[in-house]
Write a structure and sequence with these properties.
By secondary structure, the protein is mainly alpha-helical. About 50% of the residues lie in helices and about 5% in strands. Bound molecules: alpha-D-glucopyranose (GLC). The site of alpha-D-glucopyranose has 7 residues, from helix 2.
Length: about 450
Amino acid sequence: MLMANDVTDLRAAAVAVLKMNDRGSYTQPAHGLYPHQWLWDSCFIAIGMRQLDVERAKQELISLLRGQWHNGMMPNIIFRQEPEYRTDRNLWRSWLSPYAPDDITTSGITQPPMLAEAVVQVGQKLAKPERRRWYRQMYPALVTYHQWLYKERDPHGEGLVLQITPWETGLDNTPPWMAELHEHKLPFWIRSIETLRLQWIISLFRRDTKSIPMNERFSAIESAAMFDVQLRLRRKAYDIGKILDHALFTIEDLNFNCIFIRANTHLRAIAKTINEELPDDLTKRMKKTEKALEQLWDLTSGQYYSRDFITHRLLKTPSLATLLPLYAGCVSQERAGELVKMLEHEQQFGCAYPVPSVPPSSFWFHAKGYWQGPSWVNTNWLIIDGLKRYGFKDHAAALTETTLEMVAKSGCAEYFDPLTGEAAGADNFSWTAALTLDLLENN
Ligand code: GLC
């Protein structure tokens, strides 16, 4: 139970982190490890920032539009332009694509489409005429982004959109993707490193493990594989035709699609508020996505999973994504009830500091292992939002409480050990701070 003093301290600590990471028009996720602007980070940051300064929250989202590609894609990273970040920019070389923006360097992939949610959350803090103006300002970019997602990522018009690298899911080393990687997709050179036990060579080239303990990040083999995926995408200049021709990964990710469904709902509401008619084709495809989500439900295990785009095989490795249909909001009340049971169950997601990114009973579970066990404040925020909309008010309040306790106990860490609440990953992490402010306000 948080006391009034704790609340004051927590708020002050969160405000300080946001201030520390503020780069004028946007906020870096964390000093050192994440110096650039990230797509879904800025969305979560704006959601919290609206509680402090709505104009700054708007700016956070407007600054994301700098990175939008001419084909509508919103990149997951917009790089800083200073000379010392040349290596980061060079890794991606967005300039190889004719669609990349001319005056700024970005990555060549996207991230969960949280933008419409953030636009609406910020809009709620504005008076009606101003809100309409705000929606009008963001609407064209949102429409082209969602159209791009359908055009490039649902090429057969089946309803679900596919992702081409684990980074696009936002849950980087999440087990369903890593299981695919280990089972089928390790390139020859990485298999050789594994067989010859030369992982230490990879570590020499990594930056993340210079500041964060090795066991809290991708394994050496996984990180080499991610690098390999990135090089392949770059070689194809991020041309989806060429990528799909011979891709290492094409997965319809559950987390991504749930966020997309909610974003579509928001986009329809935005259009309605400003009397705009969404293109017919877009509306039809949105409906199809909602229906298609049910294809990801596995009756035998009673869980949702991500799916292989080509074979339609469900990737039956448990992760917290199974709870995200609560956030999507399009599943039945009865199904929502089944998901809530998983949240309560100790062997599933009901540990001391929920919601673990992987259930503790899983073979993959590692309490501090990045997206393979720890609890994250952003996914908690999504689940809380879904619980409220399905009427599980007590569950939402309880999860808000444990989330805030975890931050009060360990600071604005990137992620938390779900068994002890201890901090892991980077310190002073922006979305933890921002969403703490938001949860405090809506508590
Ligand atoms: C990590 C997270 C990703 C986030 C990025 C920047 O890569 O997995 O979701 O966007 O850091 O904070």
